[in-house]
């Protein structure tokens, strides 16, 4: 961002276009980080995710599109979509690794300690379909109302409610199955 600010100052002197200040305030950045983390993005990749949200907001402004009505909600949804993209890429990598391992006849070690509730919930979130995980994170961790989630995802409110109900039921069943609760 320092480079962008220097470019903005230089642009003001040279008559070049001015680069806007940081489009995310500190609270919005914290929310984006939380949504990414709860969406399963590793700590090491969180900064990249936040930068991607900033970039998309700047690109939106540069293309002349109208600013989002609620930047915080928009940023949370973009972060949730980025987390879903990260999981898809991770799954593609895992499938490739499995194919390579099958060629080598190697076994994958498995088994994690699920005795801690937070680990069990995180694992349960990882096993949910992308659409269900997205609405759970947006509703319970980003604290968005169902109406805003539906609006941002361009789906009916009933669809959001249905996905939430199905996801919560699956998480609850998993926690009981693992004897965590």
Automatic annotation (TrEMBL):
Residues 125-173 form the RNA polymerase sigma-70 region domain. Keywords: DNA-binding, Sigma factor, Transcription, Transcription regulation. This is Sigma-70 family RNA polymerase sigma factor. It comes from the Bacteria. Coiled coil: none annotated. It holds the Pfam family Sigma70_r4. Gene3D superfamilies: 1.10.1740.10, Winged helix-like DNA-binding domain superfamily/Winged helix DNA-binding domain.
